[in-house]
Amino acid sequence: MGAGHGHKLHFHGHSAIHRAPAHLKVLALLGFMIVVVATPRTWYAAFALYLLALVVVIAISRVPLTYLLKRSVVELPFVFFALLLPFVATGPQTEVLGVSVSQHGLEAGIALLVKGTLGVLASLTLAATTEPQDLLAGLERLRLPVQLVQIMAFMVRYLDVVTGEMHRMRIAREARGFDARNPRHWPVLARSAGALFIRSYERGERVHLAMLSRGYTGRMPR
């Protein structure tokens, strides 16, 4: 597999954060997340300090903040759930902008939004300042099971392959005049997803057979 390939989340740079050992950055991220999750949800001053520390790290890394914000859209489902919590939770009611909402739900929603945002930004900072192969080598150095590291390595490598296949299938559908505008087109998208799964599964089998024919014994060569 192409271990030398970069990744779309990585931002090329030569800062001190980029040069730091990958296993230390993984431990720092793990420690940061444990502290953030363990902080009581009403300690807003502590969350402000965490955000300040994270902004300082991002500034040292010289990764543009807009680069990280554009990739933080992965948090949108959590944002939606956090906004929904004040309206579905029970307990004492309070008014926000003239709307009656659950006080417990409001506090839980704010905590989820704050902790989720800090976690996403910290994870994206790690991904932006660490090459995938360095990150995998760092996980090995931390004694993560070899098979688990290899599964992650294949996932990183072939995620781009599957995404490219999906892009080609979309172009093929559009070339035939298909344009998903309403639920009547969902069966076509479902069949496309099924075909993509089968193609990916078959590709994985071919890759595995090719690796075995080249002497693969369960550990990737250095």
What's the overall average pLDDT, rounded?
83
- Helix segment tally: 9
| Biggest sheet strand line-up | 1-2
Low-confidence stretches: 1-6
Total separate domains: 2
Q: Please provide the ordered H/E string of secondary-structure elements.
A: HHHHHEEHHHH
Radius of gyration: 22 Å
Oligomer: single chain
Which structural class fits the helix and strand makeup?
mainly alpha
Residue share in β-strands? under 5%
Secondary-structure blueprint of this entry?
Blueprint: H1 16-19, H2 22-38, H3 44-61, H4 65-71, H5 76-88, E1 93-96, E2 99-102, H6 103-129, H7 132-141, H8 146-175, H9 186-213
Antiparallel strand pairs: 1-2
What does this structure look like?
- The protein has about 220 residues and is mainly alpha-helical.
- It has 2 domains: about 15-135, no CATH class; about 145-215.
- The protein is built from 9 helices and 2 strands; from the N terminus they run αααααββαααα.
- It has a two-stranded antiparallel sheet.
- A hairpin with a 2-residue loop joins strand 1 and strand 2.
- The protein is globular.
Summarize the structure.
The protein is mainly alpha-helical and 222 residues long.
Structure keywords:
2 domains, 2 strands, single chain, two-stranded antiparallel ribbon, disordered N terminus, mainly alpha, 222 residues, 9 helices
